[in-house]
Task: structure prediction
Amino acid sequence: MSPPAAPAPSLDLREDVQRELVLATRRYWAGPLYRRVVAGARRVGPVSGPDELERALARMPAYQAFGWLEQHLQTFKYTGPGGLMPAAERQRQVIEAMLAASEGRHPERLVLDPAMRLPDYYRDTDFHLVPGGIHSRSWDGVVYEWAAGTATMMQNESTDVHDSLARYLATVTPGRRILDVGCGFGPTVRALARALPEATVTGCDLSAPVLRLAHHRALAEALTLRFVQANGEDLGPFPDRSVDLVTATMFIHELPPPALRAMLRAARRVLRPGGRLVVLDFYLVPGGTLGRFFHLGHARRNGEPFMPALLELDLPAELRAAGFSAPQISPYPPGQPLDRLPESWRLPWTLIEAEALGGSDAA
Ligand SMILES: C[S@@+](CC[C@H](N)C(=O)[O-])C[C@H]1O[C@@H](n2cnc3c(N)ncnc32)[C@H](O)[C@@H]1O
Result:
């Protein structure tokens, strides 16, 4: 059955102009401007770590411009003239009608929990500098999806990584039952459903608005997916040993270490012995001190308060403590060099994989 015609929100000329400006400036920022900062940093000579480099470059005009643009382009994207927040708010009724129409179809595939208690770190942090976060307004999912189009230099880069990961997972998954934690508006679950048509794929997230959009997008693509509002720290709605593969993309860097430990234990609980955990996130940083300097600066300037703590964790030890074996941690896409900086700045993806221990040793 074809979906009923539902209105869709759109960006108009103002937002298109703003998007062009953000993308063009980001290309300049991540390319020529970044390379000027790299050249300046290399002239500083040996330093004890990123903090000393930060102090040495603090008054360098190219670095000041780099830091200013990194932070303010992001703010401008959401709230400046032609910003995504006012564009979505203006179309609030269209968005609500679109989401409600999809909720009316296959309501059993969208399980929301109106009593969900958001953890303080989640409620109180404007991740990625989105004013008010992405969990309270009906249009938050739409803003997040639009923003994802300008999060990376190439408009399609962020969705390409989900597709390439899903193609890889299709070759290694130990079974058909897949749970994606922190699924957002659903790019990973949709890619998994396309790559593994036989699989039963569920996405969970804390945010009701992003899950409502994920459900809408899945129906629009005629994919059979289930979305459940749940906290990744306990995965409460999911029974023990009910899943073969747990995935999480761009999720764990948003968790403070205690929440990450809880999430690993919860993933272990829902996995069957021998099941697999596959996480794509930001952990291995190429380029030594200089690479960490850019990475930590990004975390500070882009609303990522828990990203630095993730770098400090001994993830193989954390995985073992949570009941996993054979941890494997490598740059993604495979073969990315760790000993040198990329030519243009970008967040470096890391693939983290482990197997759920079996038998009575399981948590
Ligand atoms: C950066 S987004 C990534 C979304 C998606 N996985 C992707 O690859 O585009 C992180 C997502 O994790 C969700 N999230 C953050 N903390 C969570 C938690 N404790 N439990 C469940 N979801 C959480 C956020 O609401 C957000 O949708």
In short: The first strand starts at residue 110 and ends at 111. Residues 157-361 form a domain with the Rossmann fold fold (CATH 3.40.50.150).
